[in-house]
Amino acid sequence: MYRSLVQLFLKENISIKRLMGFDVKKSKAKAILIGLAIVYSIATFIGLFGYMFFDLGKMLHGLGQDAILISFICVYSLGMAFIITFFRASGTLFYYKDYEILAPLPIHPRVVLAAKMTVMMIMLYLMSFIVVLPILFSYFYWYGINVLSVLYFIIGFLFIPLIPVSIVSFLSLGIASLTARMRHAKLLNIVLVFILMIGLFMVMFSVNDVEQNPLTGQIDLFSGIARVYLPFDWFRLAVHEQSFVFLVYVVLSNGIIFGLYLYFIQGLVQKTNQKGIRVTMKRDGGPLKYQKRSVIWALVGKEAKRFLSSITYATNAGFGPVILLVASVASLFFKSQLEEILAQAIGAGLPLEVMILALIGFTIAMTYTPAISLSLEGKNFWIVKSLPLKPKTVMYSKILFNLILAIPVGLFSVVMFGIALQLPLLNQVMMMVLVIVFACVISLFDSMVNLLMPKFNYVNDVEVIKQSAGALIAIFGGFGFMAINGVVFHFFGDWMSEILVYLSMIGVNLLLLIPLVFFLEKKTDQIFNKLHA
Fold it and tell me: What burial class does residue 400 get, using C-beta atoms within 10 Å of its C-beta: 0-12 exposed, 13-18 middle, 19+ buried?
């Protein structure tokens, strides 16, 4: 039964149809194009990080410290375990939608829990492997391939995330239970998640000054984490020194704790799923108040409620504006540290204004609600279609909501960075105009992606927000638009004044807007009416 459940859950969560959002056999050309885009995105990621880790591996090999790359693998795997488990535990292990179907069946709850945990771990292993592949290649290229090292790495890689997964999934349940009876439980959950994510972000970049490779400054930090957390140090010794004893330490420590966690958590999971979460609402007994608003603003309000009702949605699509807001305010107090962080994250040697624009552009590209908000209508999409509204109105409301998330924070950050770094006033004005135009390009492009690649058939929100082809293409498409602006700066920055360069970049983004607006104006109604939930 366990095997059958795992196969069923895998088909529901990791199938090609789930990823694409449509039947590949019925639209092969579309599937090929999306597949190429996904392959390109993964190849770009691996190529970019592969170059940096290859350079880092060369430096460490010259110092005889190849084993430090194993510490990088451990910490990056830890990060993936935290992110995936924190966002997927609730909905995969707890409060999953098919509980009412599975509960009456003659299947022991422990078997169901084990099957769902297995599927979540498979997804974790796939994502972690993609992330650590550039590091792994650099390590074995410079250190040399040893059969025992490869074998021990594979075994250790399967066991090393088990303790973090146990801790994080338990914390996820604890936070949900702790805030369940509060009036604004989901909002509080979102705030707590943002605090944790910002804390991790600050730790990742609280490293030494770097002149060439931004990864160099993480060496001491990651090596320190590996020394403090013994399983990471055991994993390093097992792989680097081919030590069977330390491999046994890794397997036993993680395996026993993980097994005990599954055994003892099963009862709590069952009670939680039976009980559910009920939010206590207090009535003040006052009269109902009706507010009259225009159609577009009513739809924007609907988008805002949907955004704040999902922790996964808010923390993924809203992380960009939050981190930008924190960074811009922090620039007033930590100017020198900000310059170091920007140099490490974006690249040393670039002008300060360019690094700031790159940071703002990155956060705007990560604000991708139009790329998934239509898909999130799910099986209720027929209600949206039945409303006496033009499809363009619905799509523009989704675009407007995204602009409300991105533009005010973007403009505020320009002012804060301008004050902190004493940027010329005219340059700040040009940066503001560029922020507005670029945000419009991103928002319109994302809405076009969602129209062409909707995904209405999904089990939980995570499939749309994090795993859908639309979300992936929207994010990497945003990075592509950033690259276009970078090319304009590269070719015109050497012989034009700063103002003319800004005007050129603004002009290019306005040109990019033309086909996007044309598409939404001419094709939205036609595509919208053909869509089916």
Answer: middle
Could you tell me if 114 and 261 are in contact, meaning their C-beta atoms sit under 8 angstroms apart? no
Q: Where are the domains of the chain?
A: 2-275, 295-530
d(CA 408, CA 528): 30
Q: Which residues contact 70 (CB under 8 A, 6 or more apart)?
A: 139, 226, 235, 236, 239, 240
Looking at this protein, which amino acid is placed at residue 244? Answer: F
What is the pLDDT of the chain when averaged over all its residues?
79
| Bridge partners (DSSP) listed for residue 90 | 94
pLDDT of 323-340, one tens digit each?
Answer: 888 888 888 877 766 666
Residues β-bridged to residue 94: 90
Which residues lie below 8 Å from residue 328, measured CB to CB, with a gap of 6+? 412, 413, 416, 417
pLDDT per residue as tens digits for the range 19-31 = 555 566 666 666 6
Mean pLDDT of 288-300: 71
How many C-beta atoms surround the C-beta of residue 187 within 10 A?
15
Helix, strand, coil percentages in the chain from 3-state DSSP, rounded to 5: 80, 0, 20
Joined together, the tokens standing for residue 202 give 């600050």
What is 450-480 written as a DSSP string? HHHS-----SSHHHHHTSSHHHHHHHHHHHH
What gap in Å lies between CA 263 and CA 472, rounded to an integer? 36
For residues 481 and 440, the answer to whether their CB atoms sit within 8 Å is no
CB-based contacts of 239: which residues, under 8 Å, 6+ apart? 70, 149, 152, 153, 156
Q: Which two tokens stand for residue 31?
A: 């599937």
Which residues neighbour 316 within 8 Å (Cβ) at sequence distance 6 or greater?
87, 465, 466
* Residue keyed to tokens 């807001």: 325
d(CA 519, CA 524): 7
Rg for the chain, CA atoms, rounded:
24
Of 452, 426, 439, 450, which is closest to residue 510 (Cα–Cα)? 439
Q: Please, are residues 446 and 361 in contact by the beta-carbon 8 Å criterion? A: no
Backbone angles phi, psi at 418, to 5 degrees: -60, -40
